[in-house]
Amino acid sequence: MQSFWQKLKDIGDLIVFKHSIFALPFIFTAMIVASKAQNDTVWFGFKLLILGLAAAVSARNFAMAFNRYADRDIDQYNPRTAGRPSVDGRIGSSNLLLFIAINAGVFIGVAYLINDLAFALSIPILIVLGGYSLFKRFSPYAHLVLGMSLGLAPIAGVIAVQEATPLWAILLSIGVMYWVAGFDLLYSLQDMEYDKANGLFSIPSRFGKDATFFYLAAFSCPNDSLLVFICSECVVGLFRLRRCRTFCGSAFFSNTASSRAILRKSTVLFLRLTVI
User: pTM of the entire structure?
Assistant: First the structure.
């Protein structure tokens, strides 16, 4: 029994399971807005709640496990990643492949239960989720592929409810993509020298630290403008009464400003701890 729980702990360390929560706000916010637009209620039902959770967790498990499997040859020589379960022998290659296959199957099965469009897009989505691990071997812009992986979350949420992809969901996904890509730029600064020495592609390793900050600023522009525009439109759509619209709009923009301040503060702290 102790061995079983230890294996679960190793899997949790492998995929950083607790970080699965990061994708959920984007999925369920999109589902709430889509449900309000289509059914005039923010509640989309227990079925979609459970299926949405299962899809989000299985998709992320697949993406993280595939990344760990594909990067074994890279991670074993990097001091920062040499202790990962996929490298130090705690989880063997066969078990890792089995875990990847199970989560891919769960994701496809859940998509089948949601609707036809979700099922049709399930395999293309898995290809995108696995693409990041391959892109960084030949393109410095793999950060955008990683961003696209999480950016698919709001589109998936809307498809689950409406079986369609409205323009606002696409724009929101673009904003999320640049937001995640910006964070990945900062994160990849830790491995800049290692990537250079081993011929790996990233914006820091190919263009340097100063260019990375330029790209970070460039990624922040569409992220900020799209997220503010789309979320404010969602607020207006959810609260149609004028007095409620005014209150919620003010509350939203106050929250947006404070969120951006927290994000920028965390970015500065990250740089002080890991780069500067």
Answer: 0.79
